[in-house]
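Section 4.2 – Deliverable D4.2 (structural model, holo form)

The reporting period included a commitment to supply a predicted holo structure for the target in complex with 2-phosphoglycolic acid. Inputs used:
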Amino acid sequence: MRPLFIAGNWKMNPATAKEAVALAEAVKNGVGPAADVRVAVCPPALFLDQVDAALANSPIGLGAQNMHWKTEGAYTGEISGAMLNDAGCTHVILGHSERRHGMGETDAQVNAKLHAALAVGLIPIVCIGETLQEREAAQTEDVVAGQLTGSLAGISAEQMVGIVLAYEPVWAIGTGLTATPAQAQGVHEFIRDWLTKLFGEATAARIVVQYGGSVKPDNAAELLACPDIDGALVGGASLKEADFLGIIRAAQVVAAKGQV
Ligand code: PGA
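Output (structure tokens):
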């Protein structure tokens, strides 16, 4: 079945490489060699190399928070997939709402990045999710379906199995407001149905769909126990080792109960 996958999105934190390495080491020591739940951390690009070294000999994946779709050239300030590979990355977050809404990133750009990430063997974590205004206007399913259609254009069933999705309602990110397990599961079920229509039941059953938005140790177990929620993309709580490890422990308990 689908393994639970907990990823920490550190965003533009912490301020120094020293703090980033210390956090990575704390997560590595807390997780230990056990691989019953997949774990990854996504530090700022500047710290990837050093965090990679800190994570040596651990099962923890290393993710970037963004990349460009071109392989090289005159793209000031951008980072290519090949560079992320060279820095030791295994994963890359694409289309986070802070990039979609804060930087105007479009589905077409997310799609170009997705193809580029797959071309260099990175595991993409593609983020989707509605704003509060869209939820209140009962547009959640239309918005999510539109983002899936645009972001996943040209992807085969075979490729899809290697892509992680993250449903992150924008109104729950960094706000302390979490979708209730029922709200989250409702959208996850919609996403699974959409994937089934596009890629078939066998493929859809294998795709890991994380939930993100104010996931904390005290709400993780309930969310992760939902049948179509296969992990969490964690922002704020991933910066505190005790909280991030608490979420991983909750996932381990859910996994041990065989609820995935
Ligand atoms: P949050 O962020 O956990 O701080 O709400 C989640 C995310 O942006 O991925």
